[in-house]
Amino acid sequence: MKRADYLALSLRGLRRGMNGLAALLTSAAAMAMCFSGAMLAAVRAEEAAPCELTVTGPGYLAITEQTVQDIRAVDGVVDATGTVEVPAGLACAEHTASLTLVGLDGDYLRGDYILGGAFPAGGAMPWLTLTRAAARSFVREGDDARHGADYLPELDWLGGAFTLTAGQSVLSARVSGLMEGEDPVGYMDLAAARRILQSQGGTGAFTGVLVRVKNAGTAEAVSAAVAAMGFAAAERDTGRQQAWDARMREAIYLAAVAAVSLACAAMVRLTGAARDREGRRRRAEALRWAGMSRRAVEGLDLLGGLWLGLAGGAAGVCAHYTAAALAGLGGAESAFALTLPPALIPLPAAVCALAGSLGSRRL
């Protein structure tokens, strides 16, 4: 028998029994595996990305330029900057907001910008970079405070004239950019922030240090090194570990769903084969009389299971990407908007194909 005829014969056998239900269960398993893998990959990528620590000190120990230099020299530290905080009010047109402006080195600032970019260093007029949350805090009297996640007040952010009020100081300011961020804060040049504080009688001394480390794995070692200097370091994003733990639990749950679905698909195929035992025996005898070897006859069922697993796996992968695209349309963050990295696409299809062949009943 030609190879093409043998393959066609194995596909023809899938029309019988309960293979349609088995394919549907296999597709569900592949979809669950894709989402599980996407969540695990996202957590691993975030763990490998740089993260930030906030360093503070006891009242008796001042944070100086030398302190910042010593922290920069710690193994695992990518960058560090001293910070000062300026409580301020901002106004533009009829919109106002009360924010904390953080003075830091402009070279330190990194992020995903919605508009513009980082503030320029120097200059007599303060330039500000605001987070999305800070931009959303601008309100106008009488406006409805309920808005979607992507809402931004209708202001000329990069060209408008802003008024900055800090204590008794009233200054003209401009916005250089808007960046993603859940904390309602603004950033400005360290020297400009110090001038504002000194104009109010303050010293402009550092109130903390922002530290960017290589990844989450090095954060603990850096925190220990900072503690040895007499200061305390803590992750700036305090809810990140909880989010990772929650996502890992979801990934494990989906992996369990995939395993159960594959087991059910195998049981469905076995049940269908048991119901059609006599018909299967007659077909096997007919094939043997036609000259096919016993091993070739047994291989038909295994090959059919392989085809079924591949088809179900491919359908599940397509369903995963479709569902992720639909979940991302709303704009809100969802674990089900994550997609499996393209390099891992063959994995769920291969697992489903293997499970389909192993779940086949031998003639």
Order of helices and strands: HHEHEEEEHEEEHEHEHHHH
Helix and strand composition category: alpha+beta
Total domains: 2
Mean pLDDT: 84
Separate helix tally:
10
Strand fraction:
15-25%
The dominant shape is: elongated
Q: Main β-sheet: number of strands, strand sense, barrel status? A: 6 strands, mixed, barrel
Low-confidence stretches are none
Helix content: 40-55%
- CA gyration radius, whole angstroms: 31 Å
How does this structure look, described?
By secondary structure, the chain is an alpha+beta fold. It folds into two domains: 3-46 and 242-358; 51-214, no CATH class. Helix content is 47%, strand content 20%. The chain contains ten helices and ten strands. The chain has a six-stranded mixed β-barrel. Strand 6 and strand 7 form a beta hairpin. It is elongated and about 100 Å long. The protein starts with a helix and ends in a 5-residue tail after the last helix.
What's a quick, concise take on this entry?
The chain has 363 residues and is an alpha+beta fold.
Features:
single chain; 363 residues; alpha+beta; 2 domains; 6-stranded mixed beta barrel; 10 helices; 20% strand; elongated
List the helices and strands and how they pair.
Blueprint: H1 3-12, H2 19-48, E1 51-56, H3 65-72, E2 77-92, E3 95-104, E4 113-116, E5 127-131, H4 132-136, E6 162-166, E7 169-179, E8 185-189, H5 190-199, E9 208-213, H6 216-228, E10 232-235, H7 240-275, H8 277-289, H9 294-327, H10 346-358
Parallel strand pairs: 3-8, 5-7
Antiparallel strand pairs: 1-9, 1-10, 2-3, 2-6, 2-9, 4-7, 5-8, 6-7
